[in-house]
Design goal:
The protein is an alpha/beta fold. 35% of the residues lie in helices and 15% in strands. The structure holds 4'-deoxy-4'-aminopyridoxal-5'-phosphate. Homotetramer.
Length: 459
């Protein structure tokens, strides 16, 4: 039973003593009490299917018994020390984690959050290349620290501070909303009808977006030189936006030709999330120079990492760089057990199997409802974009969106919300969900969308 502060008291403290940033609360904000695998329970004992996994962070399940046991066992021995001393957990985990990466991506630096990992990656890129300029894509989210905020290109997550020296945003290869289509060229099990002459090897939209990237190099970068490119393998906060096939590979070539390194932000897409691959970048058939990872790496525990090549890491050789909590024994014990669970329970395969089934079922909703503009994603990284109607693609207004989103919660399904226009349902659950969980979510969405469909169309 719930024994915490009562609900009204919490609302009072929230309004009086918490920094009032806008969080997208439900009409009646949820008060969570405990969690178990894909389930969350509120203070009144109501059960919810967690289809957002603490923002794509719960990889193997809330309070997964093996991960919890590993944390408890380590807590009894040692929580924290400093990297001035050595602790075996860091080395054992470093070896296991880096063995999951391809090519020369062999050395790791542990930190505690996605923003910290990207900060460090940006610094490494600048030190290694001796260039300053960085390119990211519009609609990207790479973090909130003042250093990395410049690469985040969703204006609602930016502040009018000197955040963006030397940072350039390229046109986003958004195949749903963009100028040149290319929806059929996404790497997704559900395909829309082809309207183009693209071949398996050459997507016309990808080529157009590539030309836009070239323009950034030509017009904005000092003498065309770049330190690095940041890219998510599927944009997360931006609303599960997938690049057309072939785009990223060509973008990487352009960056390298112009003196830069390629940074894959795997904060959301890593650890088997996209099903077919352990890392999201693999679906683009590229090998980055630096990979950043957070969220799912610790199944909810603050832990993140930057993995790079020995050559790039060399730039920090003999330099002082310090992070108090990075790589602490507790975080490493947890990270290690998460990797073991992913292997033992074949979590990635489940992501692929259940995710593909889920996408097929959600695609039926796209065919049934005028307001479901797009269904996209791979594995358990899924987005459902709600619109006024399919033709105009006008983002569904906040009032209607919130009704739908809130009703899903009332029926026991928690879904994320995202995109520049906050009109995208984000389905990124703990990867232990079953087909039955996916079916239940689709049933709830079908019921709720049916209830609201008439109102939306009149609107
Ligand atoms: N990169 C991506 C792709 C993210 O989604 C996020 C967080 N939403 C971050 C970086 C920043 O992570 P953190 O909030 O842990 O700093």
């Amino acid at each position: 039973p719930y024994e915490g502060l009562d609900y009204e008291k919490i609302q009072k403290i929230k309004s009086e003593r918490i920094v009032p940033c806008i969080m997208q609360y439900y009409k009646k904000p949820l008060l969570i009490h405990h969690g178990k695998m894909q389930w969350l329970f509120d203070h009144e004992g109501n059960r919810y299917l967690d289809m957002f996994g603490g923002i794509v962070t719960i990889s193997v399940g809330h309070c997964h018994p093996k991960v919890t046991a590993a944390a408890k066992a380590q807590m009894d021995k040692l929580w924290h020390t400093t990297n001035i001393y050595q602790h075996p957990n860091l080395y054992e985990y470093a070896e296991k984690l880096t063995s999951k990466l391809p090519g020369d991506l062999k050395v790791v630096y542990f930190v505690n959050s996605g923003s910290e990992a990207n900060d460090l990656a940006m610094m490494m890129a600048r030190l290694y290349t001796k260039n300053f300029d960085i390119v990211s894509f519009r609609n990207a989210y790479h973090g909130m620290s003042p250093y990395i905020m410049g690469t985040t290109a969703i204006s609602t997550w930016r502040y009018n501070l000197p955040i963006a020296q030397g940072i350039h945003h390229a046109m986003n290869p958004d195949v749903y909303r963009g100028l040149w289509g290319g929806q059929h060229c996404r790497d997704s099990p559900i395909q829309t009808q082809r309207h183009c002459n693209c071949s398996e090897f050459r997507c016309e939209a990808a080529q157009k977006y590539y030309e836009q990237l070239e323009e950034v190099f030509k017009y904005s970068l000092p003498r065309g030189q770049v330190a690095g490119l940041f890219a998510e393998s599927i944009q997360g906060v931006g609303g599960t936006v997938q690049f057309p096939k072939g785009f990223l590979k060509k973008a990487y070539e352009l960056v390298r030709t112009n003196g830069g390194v390629c940074i894959a932000d795997e904060v959301q897409t890593g650890f088997g999330r996209t099903g077919g691959h352990f890392w999201g970048f693999e679906m683009h058939k590229v090998v980055p120079d630096i990979v950043t990872m957070a969220k799912g790496i610790g199944n909810g525990f603050p832990l993140s990492a930057v993995v790079t090549t020995p050559k790039i890491a060399e730039t920090l050789n003999s330099a002082l760089h310090f992070n108090t909590f990075g790589g602490n024994p507790l975080a490493c014990a947890i990270g290690m057990s998460v990797l073991e669970v992913i292997e033992e329970e074949e979590t990635q395969a489940n992501s692929e199997k259940v995710g593909t089934h889920f996408l097929y079922e959600l695609a039926k909703l796209r065919d049934e409802f005028e307001c479901v503009g797009d269904v996209r994603g791979k594995g358990l990284m899924i987005g459902v974009e709600l619109v006024e109607d399919k033709e105009s693609k006008i983002p569904l207004g906040a009032k209607n969106f919130v009704e739908i989103w809130n009703d899903c919660k009332e029926m026991g399904v928690l879904i994320g919300r995202g995109g520049m226009n906050s009109n995208i349902l984000r389905l990124k659950p703990p990867m232990c969900i079953t087909k039955a969980d996916a079916d239940y979510t689709v049933d709830v969405l079908r019921y709720v969308l049916t209830k609201h469909a008439k109102k939306i169309q009149k609107h």
